[in-house]
């Protein structure tokens, strides 16, 4: 009995100590913390669980938008986090060499010694990697890769022909995801995953989605990873992870068995390149890490853009008719639809894609940056007029900025003409502000390296689909807004479209 009483007393003492610590910590965060005067949800002032909770629900982008409407253009979203919603903040944060990518991105590392473009924190190392990887993703590399891309797009179009002949609607999120991942596989490893033509690997999109979801939650609350709770799920998750790594390793071995320049992929473009400033190249292990990162990064971005484009084209008939007229008057055959002056002249096509990127950014999350603890107090960091204390984590939510009425009037309405200066009804200054706020690929040195690939792939897919087919939506009763779930990338379904062949054009396929 005395022993039991001693244990009970010890537990009470520990509970009291814990309670006292919570009171002191939370009181400091509410009343004395350098960010205490910034508005925001009360719970967010106490704990990072606020962001993690809504990340778990895949709703953090929507909640951030709603919070900005309630609290203003800057809000406190964690004890040590500020989120902004202005053009000034966009450029002050992401074009500022003083800030570094948030340390929370390190939760995505597979190995402590291997970094890729997404999770590398060191600025010098990032610049080196960016220059090297850029050789495989720039416009010149995309021109060389375009024939391979077109092979996969042709498969996509043939699958739509089958839907026409069978009278079955097509779920464009699935179709675009399979296409995007097959193209990413071709670029990263010299071969696709055959997702469009075979069901054996169609577990991949769901597996990638789960991985992105996990990353999204951890970036909001890194401690969740470090406590090791996910080990409980290893019996469920580990077989899928091992399956993915076996598949990737098989693709790497097959590619290494070929001549280095046998295919116009990343391996061919980058393996011999040395950074002109440092003289460094990528090791084989680093190169395959970058290729593996390209699978979800490239596939997810392009599939979201294409699915959103088809969604809004099917729900805005005037937009659809105008785009169809432009494409069908510009080209005389589907084979002519390729990169070059004719495709570049399709200004309405580009406007449709940019409006889809605006209203449905492929990644609607907040991209966090850290203010160094040793930041020079003699020249304080200023973001949108606010002096930011050292050690603060700052960011801007892309989804929220893209729906800011100050820059995008009627933000939830799909209006491609807003990107056409002669038609948008805005002044030159307002048009410039709108373009300055448009950041689906982020800006600055950390902007997406695959921007050229995304635009080329989406332009070809949408233009060729409009050339060969007419289509309409079969799920009219759903929301007029393309619904996405935020998970460091996005998860979505639909639209379901019914296709018709345009005359005999399809026979050239």
Automatic annotation (TrEMBL):
It comes from the Eukaryota. Its cofactor is heme. One of its GO terms (molecular function) is heme binding. Pfam families: p450. Gene3D superfamilies: Cytochrome P450 (1.10.630.10). Keywords: Heme, Iron, Metal-binding, Monooxygenase, Oxidoreductase. The keyword Zinc does not apply. SUPFAM superfamilies: Cytochrome P450. The keyword Oxidoreductase applies. Heme binds at residue 448. Belongs to the cytochrome P450 family. This is Cytochrome P450. It comes from Trematosphaeria pertusa. The lineage of its organism: Eukaryota, Fungi, Dikarya, Ascomycota, Pezizomycotina.
């Amino acid at each position: 009995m005395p022993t039991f009483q001693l244990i009970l007393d010890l537990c009470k003492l520990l509970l009291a100590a814990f309670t006292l610590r919570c009171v002191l910590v939370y009181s400091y965060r509410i009343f004395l913390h350098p960010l205490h005067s910034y508005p925001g949800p009360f719970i967010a002032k106490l704990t990072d669980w606020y962001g993690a909770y809504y990340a778990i629900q895949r709703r953090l982008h929507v909640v951030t938008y709603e919070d900005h409407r309630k609290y203003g253009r800057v809000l406190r979203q964690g004890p040590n986090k500020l989120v902004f919603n202005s053009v000034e903040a966009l450029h002050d944060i992401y074009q500022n060499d003083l800030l570094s990518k948030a340390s929370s991105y390190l939760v995505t590392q597979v190995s402590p010694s291997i970094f890729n473009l997404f999770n590398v924190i060191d600025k010098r190392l990032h610049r080196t990697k960016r220059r090297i990887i850029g050789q495989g993703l720039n416009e010149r590399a995309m021109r060389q890769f375009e024939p391979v891309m077109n092979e996969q797009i042709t498969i996509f179009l043939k699958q739509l022909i089958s839907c026409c002949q069978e009278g079955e609607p097509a779920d464009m999120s699935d179709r675009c995801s399979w296409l995007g991942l097959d193209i990413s596989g071709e670029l990263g490893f010299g071969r696709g995953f055959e997702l469009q033509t075979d069901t054996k690997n169609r577990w991949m999109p769901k597996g990638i989605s789960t991985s992105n979801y996990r990353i999204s939650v951890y970036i909001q609350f890194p401690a969740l990873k470090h406590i090791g709770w996910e080990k409980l799920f290893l019996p469920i998750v580990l077989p899928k992870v091992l399956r993915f790594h076996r598949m990737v390793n098989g693709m790497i071995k097959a590619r290494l068995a070929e001549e280095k320049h046998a295919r116009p992929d990343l391996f061919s473009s980058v393996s011999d390149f040395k950074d002109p400033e440092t003289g460094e190249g990528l090791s084989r292990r680093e190169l395959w890490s970058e290729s593996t990162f390209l699978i979800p990064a490239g596939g997810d971005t392009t599939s979201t853009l294409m699915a959103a484009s088809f969604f809004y084209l099917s729900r805005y008939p005037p937009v659809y008719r105008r785009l169809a007229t432009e494409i069908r008057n510009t080209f005389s055959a589907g084979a002519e639809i390729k990169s070059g002056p004719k495709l570049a002249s399709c200004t309405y096509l580009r406007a449709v894609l940019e409006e889809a990127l605006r209203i449905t950014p492929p990644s609607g999350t907040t991209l966090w940056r850290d203010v160094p603890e040793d930041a020079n107090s003699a020249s304080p960091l200023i973001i949108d007029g606010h002096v930011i204390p050292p050690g603060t984590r700052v960011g801007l939510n892309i989804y929220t900025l893209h729906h800011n009425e100050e820059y995008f009037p009627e933000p939830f309405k799909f209006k491609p003409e807003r990107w056409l200066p002669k038609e948008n009804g805005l002044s030159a200054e307002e048009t410039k502000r709108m373009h300055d706020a448009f950041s689906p690929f982020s800006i600055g040195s950390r902007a997406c390296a695959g921007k050229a690939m995304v635009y080329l792939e989406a332009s070809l897919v949408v233009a060729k689909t409009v050339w060969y087919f007419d289509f309409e939506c079969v799920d009219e009763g759903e929301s007029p807004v393309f619904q996405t779930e935020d998970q460091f990338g996005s998860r979505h379904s639909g639209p379901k479209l019914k296709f018709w062949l345009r005359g005999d054009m399809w026979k050239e396929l």
